[in-house]
Amino acid sequence: MVHGQGGVKFQNWAKTYGSSPELYFQPTSVEEIREILDMARQRDKRVKVVGGGHSPSDIACTDDFMIQMGKMNRVLKVDKEKQQVTVEGGIFLSDLNVELSKHGLALANLGAVSEVAAAGVIGTGTHNTGIKHGILPTQVVALTLLTASGEILECSESVNADIFQAARLHLGCLGVVLTVTFQCVPQFHLHEVAFPSTLTEVLDHLDDHLQRSQYFRFLWFPHSENVSVIYQDPTNKPPSSSASWWWDYAVGYYLLEFLLWISTFVPSLVCWINRFFFWLLFSSRVENIAISYKIFNYECRFKQHVQDWAIPIEKTKEALLELKAALENNPKMVAHYPVEVRFARGDEIWLSPCFQRDSCYMNIIMYRPYGKNVPRLNYWLTYEGIMKKHGGRPHWAKAHSCTRKDFEKMYPAFPKFCSVREKLDPTGMFLNTYLEKVFY
């Protein structure tokens, strides 16, 4: 019989949200998960499944039963002919990347963090950048789902097609994702080039940048015109990097944390800190070549609050200039760098922020130097207002203030998703506080 652990305190990576589940489980088999669901049903408890706990919101929190999938983390099958891999839902992408590399394969696109579980990555709609690339769930070609009733459903474009379109971005509310099959590509290296520019130049020539680089993104430094443009493109050149630059970057971040801590007492320093760090770390051209996942991933050095909304790509310039103007017109409202601007191809996944439209993701952060919270509410609400005005949809893993009424307007397929959820989980076993705001 499976045993749950009491007294466990769960916190997300950023330590911005946490909970104390009544029982915490780390199952090693499908049979054990079934037992947990049976126990939850008998005791009228809810169940929350977690992976790496990286979501900077309360989407993974519960006071009832928590299932951590870290022990169900095997690579089950590698099909070299189809270039597909089937894995258990609990595998971290950091481990999957290494395993794929052994077979000469890779995922075509990855988010910035790989200490995240496969099922969680697709469940919240993780993305990176590249207008020819979709969010990570678009790389999923099949999955298996254990429902609240204990039934296992095979899902793909041809089997349980509706459930598949819901489960590719499932929010953890349809059941337990047991396995995921990803479409891969041959292993590749990326040539990364970062160089300084201005916001005006990038926005005026946005189409050129999007055409010029397969994985184009840029970082804007609020309270200035400063921008760092980042191109990442496949290459046959051998790996190389500027080791001294990475050393400067690491040391710079420790200095940044200290200066941002000082700025909590003198907020007007933030605009100067942003400019100083652009000059220190981003004002010259830097190049790096490495295997794809090492370029896609980068280390989040300290804790932060994050918002990240997707807007129609044609609204990029207007929305970003509006955010810039809002900061200029409100001197007391400060914004840490960077505002990270990325792009993604439209798709047909029901709850994808890119549903039926090519999109621009605009990611804002406020760091928490030494764990200290900083005033951010005015900045957050101003940003959300601009995003909503331009037809934005929030990243599901990030904190936001949207409710069901908002989602019904944002997502044409929202009623379809709700119908599938209610059919698979009629008693709401997989809901929590975050999801109640989404569905009720």
CATH topology of the largest domain: Vanillyl-alcohol Oxidase, Chain A, domain 3
CATH homologous superfamily title of the largest domain: FAD-linked oxidases, C-terminal domain
CATH architecture of the largest domain: 3-Layer(aba) Sandwich
Beta-strand content bin: 15-25%
Structural class: alpha+beta
- Major sheet size, sense and barrel closure: 8 strands, antiparallel
- Whole-number tally of structural domains: 2
* Head-to-tail CA distance between termini: 35 Å
Radius of gyration: 22 Å
In terms of per-residue confidence, which ranges show pLDDT below 50 for 5 or more consecutive residues?
A: none
General form? globular
Q: What is the CATH top level name of the largest domain?
A: Alpha Beta
- Output the number of helix runs: 14
Count of DSSP E strands?
20
- Mean of pLDDT: 94
Biggest β-sheet: strands ordered side by side in the sheet: 16-13-15-14-18-19-17-20
Report on this model:
Strand 14 and strand 15 (226-235) form a beta hairpin. This protein starts with 9 loop residues before the first strand and ends with a helix. Helix 10 packs antiparallel against helix 11 (377-389). It is built from 14 helices and 20 strands. The radius of gyration is 22 Å and the shape is globular. An eight-stranded antiparallel beta sheet has the order 16-13-15-14-18-19-17-20, with helices on both faces. A five-stranded antiparallel beta sheet has the order 6-7-11-9-10. The longest helix has 21 residues, at 243-263. The protein folds into two domains: 75-186, Uridine Diphospho-n-acetylenolpyruvylglucosamine Reductase, domain 3 (2-Layer Sandwich), CATH 3.30.465.10; 189-394, Vanillyl-alcohol Oxidase, Chain A, domain 3. The protein has 440 residues and is an alpha+beta fold. The relative contact order is 0.14.
